[in-house]
Write a structure and sequence with these properties.
- The chain is globular and about 50 Å long.
- Strand 9, helix 8 and strand 10 form a beta-alpha-beta unit.
- It is built from 13 helices and 13 strands.
- It starts with a helix and ends in a 15-residue tail after the last helix.
- Helix content is 40%, strand content 16%.
- By secondary structure, it is of the alpha/beta class.
- It has a single domain, classed as Aldolase class I (TIM Barrel, Alpha-Beta Barrel), CATH 3.20.20.70.
- The structure holds flavin mononucleotide.
- Flavin mononucleotide binds next to strand 4, strand 6, strand 11 and helix 12.
Length: 367
């Protein structure tokens, strides 16, 4: 019903407007236990699905299933329990910046085809103090919280370590893990932070901050999907050297030919493509497999890029991912997506006689 009736109606709305309505609806539903419960039933038609075989662990933190809402869906931290009720085990909030930033002029988020998005939001964020206030509501809640740390546009690159550290310090008490996002295509110069020396300084500053606050929490670095293998290897070297937990592969793709498939006008438009595009999915899965082959014993991988059903989820797990993130398919496939994927993975495990999700990690990576 979602794809036949609801999605065509929603596709008429401006994409960002739709997104904000969806987030605020979940936020409202959180206000009473009954409406929160109804969210799950209405969205998926089933009781929230849970199964012990789906359990996974990231940096020592247990997740009841591998599905996390990726950064960008809830930048404010307002709908965490609503998303949990839809079947996700966690939400990566953000990217969160030190202070409020409006981002690029609107419109800046588009569905270029059903299930495929292009956006150039440009790191819009309400700022870390607002996010801290919102997250305070979830103390003791079962949802796992990741914090994606970004950096305000006007911060000189030499100050990037402290710009990241200050967010880690402010949100330390709310986070189950942190992610450093230096891979957004939508902030001029940001991807320069992929450079080895700068990345090293940022990681060091965030690690030192966590130690000062009470101890290191799991820390991930998110990479851009179009990086060459040599550049990925440079990042892996820094990551291992600083004992970070792992890599999130990957962010949206700023690849002109990929965008031009949806109309020539998108070719020269700066911005990142995400969602149900075969080339994008393949590009991100190949990055996951490469990282697993190179550093699978030392680094944990969160796979993200074009996941929309149990098959595409299993593709990333078998390439080496220990957990998965989803953003665009919440719109493309609808609110039942997490329940369907979790159920589908368990069905697959039963069919194949697999006892736990972790037995599937990396089996197709060719390690
Ligand atoms: C509208 C939108 C906003 C996003 N904002 C962020 C962000 O702030 N930080 C970040 O690390 N990734 C951001 N992303 C990237 C996603 O987290 C994810 O890496 C990407 O969309 C691929 O996953 P998907 O194919 O499931 O959408 C954003 C993606 C979209 C579509």
């Amino acid at each position: 019903m979602y794809k036949e009736i609801i999605r065509p109606l929603l596709d008429r709305l401006d994409s960002e407007t739709f997104h904000n309505i969806a987030r605020e609806s979940l936020h409202l539903a959180e206000l009473t236990p009954l409406t929160l419960k109804l969210v799950g039933l209405f969205a998926d038609g089933h009781k929230r699905f849970a199964d012990k075989r789906l359990r996974t662990v990231l940096g020592g933190v247990e997740f009841e299933n591998p599905l996390i809402v990726g950064a960008g869906w809830d930048k404010h931290g307002r709908a965490l329990m609503g998303l949990w009720q839809l079947g996700f085990a966690g939400v990566e909030v953000g990217s969160v910046l030190e202070y409020r930033q409006p981002g690029n002029p609107k419109p800046r988020q588009f569905m270029v085809s059903p299930g495929v998005a292009v956006n150039w939001l440009g790191f819009n964020s309400p700022g870390m103090d607002v996010v801290a206030k919102n997250l305070g509501r979830y103390e003791g809640a079962p949802v796992r919280v990741g914090i994606s740390i970004g950096m305000n546009r006007d911060v000189p690159h030499d100050d990037s370590p402290e710009a990241h550290a200050v967010v880690a310090r402010r949100l330390y008490g709310y986070a189950d893990y942190f992610a450093i996002n230096v891979s957004s295509p939508n902030t001029p110069g940001l991807r320069m932070l992929h450079e080895k020396g700068r990345k090293r300084d940022i990681i060091r500053a965030v690690n030192e901050t966590m130690e000062g606050e009470g101890g290191r929490k799991p820390l991930f670095v998110k990479i851009a999907p179009e990086l060459g293998l040599k550049e990925v290897d440079d990042i892996l070297e820094v990551a291992v050297e600083h004992s970070i937990t792992g890599i999130i592969a990957a962010n949206t793709a700023d690849v002109p030919e990929m965008k031009a498939k949806y109309g020539e006008k998108w070719r020269g438009q700066p911005g990142g493509l995400s969602g149900d595009d075969e080339d994008y999915r393949k590009m991100t899965t190949e990055k996951v497999a490469h990282i697993y082959r190179q550093a699978g014993d030392e680094l944990e991988i969160i796979g993200v890029g074009g996941i929309k059903d149990a098959d595409t989820a299993l593709e990333k797990i078998k390439a080496g991912a220990r957990a998965l993130q989803i953003v665009t398919a919440i719109r493309g496939e609808g609110t039942a997506v997490a329940g369907k994927i979790n159920r589908g993975i368990v069905e697959y495990m039963e069919r194949e006689g697999v006892r736990s999700l972790t037995d599937l990690i990396g089996v197709d990576a060719g390690k």
